[in-house]
């Protein structure tokens, strides 16, 4: 079972939202490390695994790096390496989004039966 899928637009080919590729890479490195260290990708995790993907572009060209969290469809902006830990702890694990950092909500429609 998958609990969350985290898509981070961290190192886009055309840095429209995040002009500093080093900042995006630091965010990605932090996300990767914490997901691994905290056992969030462990298949035996009762809540389900947390997948992570580095995206080239999420078509939200502002306030990058940006992080899209599925299944909620919440997009965080300004996702620095420092913010990653709080997002994982409060939103992904704790279930409480951080409203001050949300730049967009993209609700997903349920699949047709």
Radius of gyration: 14 Å
Biggest sheet statistics: 5 strands, mixed
* Distance between the first and last residues' Cα: 19 Å
Shape: globular
Task: Indicate the mean pLDDT.
Answer: 89
Structural class: alpha+beta
Number of H- or I-type helical stretches:
2
Which residues sit in consecutive blocks of at least 5 with pLDDT less than 50? none
- Total strand count, please? 5
For the biggest β-sheet, the strand order reads 2-1-3-4-5
Q: Approximately how much beta-strand content do the residues carry?
A: 15-25%
What are the secondary-structure elements, in order, as H or E?
Answer: EHEEEHE
Helical amount = 25-40%
Short description:
By secondary structure, the chain is α+β, with helices and mostly antiparallel strands. It has helices at residues 21-37, 81-93; strands at residues 2-9, 49-55, 66-70, 74-76, 102-105.
């Amino acid at each position: 079972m998958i609990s969350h899928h985290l898509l981070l637009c961290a190192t886009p080919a055309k840095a429209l939202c995040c002009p500093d590729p080093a900042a995006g890479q630091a965010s990605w490195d932090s996300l990767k490390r914490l997901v691994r260290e905290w056992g969030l990708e462990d298949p035996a995790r009762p809540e389900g695994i947390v997948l992570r993907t580095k995206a080239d572009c999420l078509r939200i060209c502002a306030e990058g790096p940006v992080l899209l969290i599925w299944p909620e469809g919440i997009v965080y902006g300004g996702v620095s390496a420092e913010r990653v830990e709080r997002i994982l702890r409060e939103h992904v694990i704790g279930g409480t989004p951080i409203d001050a950092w949300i730049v967009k909500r993209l609700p997903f429609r349920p699949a047709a039966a």
